[in-house]
Amino acid sequence: MNKNKLLVIGSLNMDLVVNVPQMPKVGETILGENFKAVAGGKGANQAFAASKLCAEVYMLGKIGTDEYGQALLDSLNSAGVNTEGIEKQSGTHTGLASICVNSDGDNSIVVIPGANNTCSKEYIYRHISLIEMCDIVILQLEIPFDVVSYIIEIAKKMNKTVILNPAPAPNSLPDSMLAKVDIITPNETELQKLTGMETNSINEIKKAAKVLLDKGVKTVIVTWGDKGAVLATNNQFKVFPTTEVRVVDTTAAGDTFTAAIAVAISENKTLGEAIEFANRVAAVVVTREGAQTSIPTKDEVENLFNSNK
Ligand code: RIB
């Protein structure tokens, strides 16, 4: 097996999670059922997941000097992620995410970026040797947008594979950025936001994905909740259904899906094989509570699916 090095650059958040019977409406006060602080952040979840799935993973990102920051570092270290490049920033707090999870397992998330917003081009440049050393660079959009653009620019100049999980999704992405992205992994809502097109049916998803392909993205992989995932390239279009499971909490399912795609690509799997693997991993994540607490090892995924055959 060819084991490439993966570099995740992005956010680290402590998730402050409350279970609610249903999402509160505007102006409404409701009672939650319990409260937990769980290691999260889209970037950290992706790094944690890729490492659990057996890749060699490095992460760049910023935390505060508080206890939450240390707990997030400990979590990544426990999964085997190389965290030497993660810096502690004084004068701000570690990123926080306020999360409500309803009885269907759906979530609603508000991120307070804190130290994530101090990721600067200078910080990235200080760690440019990590970008040079790694084969695949994985990004999301919870650190400043100009820094993500800068990373994509330099990663592409170095001929790296760039995977962008466009979350939280902006209303559009510059064509110059899209042209440098090898794989983009929006969910159908993010695809709708990015393209301004409806994504309620497979035909609509196909048309919206084509807009991104026409702007130069090489591969679009749309996560489609309990329907699985959709692959769109200039010569392939295919739906990959997923296994039906009892959903407890969908937090970090998309992050783990993106990480699993990166791991499979690093092992020279085909795009189809990568999506089938990522679907299996995400199907496990949604049956468990929390972000990093829900992410399985590669062996767990293989054992669960082999025992269900
Ligand atoms: O994708 C889930 C993640 O989004 C959470 O862990 C939260 O921290 C936010 O970044």
Task: Tell me what you see in this structure.
The chain is α/β, with parallel strands linked by helices. 36% of the residues lie in helices and 21% in strands. The chain has eleven helices and 14 strands. The protein has helices at residues 42-52, 67-78, 121-126, 128-133, 145-157, 175-178, 188-195, 202-214, 253-266, 271-285, 298-307; strands at 5-9, 13-19, 35-40, 56-60, 62-64, 87-89, 95-101, 107-112, 136-139, 161-164, 183-184, 219-223, 229-232, 237-240. Strands 4-1-9-10-11-12-13-14 form an eight-stranded mixed beta sheet, with helices on both faces. The chain has a four-stranded mixed beta sheet with strand order 3-2-7-8. The two termini are 25 Å apart. The model has no long low-confidence stretch (mean pLDDT 97). Residues 11, 13, 15, 40-42, 45, 97, 109, 111, 142, 251-252, 254-255, 291 line the site of alpha-D-ribofuranose.
